[in-house]
Design brief:
Length: about 160
């Protein structure tokens, strides 16, 4: 379980540090766009009140989504107690850390701070995301690959 909490803490801190650096210290919240290595990487400020692609945004969604993050954390922690593979614990930690980092944004700002915008090969991506989103996605993928449980039959 220590591995899970270390991964969660690392994901949480990396996300919050990136937001502090880019959104506040580089003042992206005022500048709105900062080309880094266009078109591959541009910092583009976005405040997401909902979930992916702005879905489920609205007045009541903020606290509902904070509650969902807490529930996901509790359920994932309880489920992970049965994991036997260390990579499954890391994966669960990435999801937990990312979910709690985005939840903190919702509490502090009322929305999630998104700023990573990546495009390539003539395809313009209008959407922005953050490191917490990357950790959640990677952790979910890792859970699909490595989550196993004690006592479960493996082929």
């Amino acid at each position: 379980m220590r591995t899970l909490w270390l991964a969660a803490l690392a994901a949480f801190l990396a996300d919050q540090a990136s937001k502090l650096l880019v959104v506040h210290l580089l003042d992206l919240k005022s500048r709105l766009v900062l080309p880094v290595a266009p078109p591959f990487l541009t910092f583009r400020m976005g405040w997401n009140e909902g979930i992916n692609f702005g879905l489920l945004h609205g007045a009541g969604a903020r606290w509902l989504l904070v509650a969902v993050a807490v529930i996901v954390t509790v359920v994932l922690f309880r489920w992970s107690r049965n994991f036997t593979r260390p990579l499954a614990h890391v994966s669960a930690g990435l999801v937990i850390g990312g979910a709690l980092a985005n939840a903190l944004d919702r509490v502090v700002y009322g929305a999630v701070a998104d700023f990573l915008n990546m495009s390539c090969c003539g395809i313009h991506n209008p959407y922005a995301f953050n490191l917490a989103d990357v950790f959640i996605f990677a952790g979910a993928g890792g859970l699909v690959l490595w989550a196993d449980e004690r006592g479960a039959k493996t082929p």
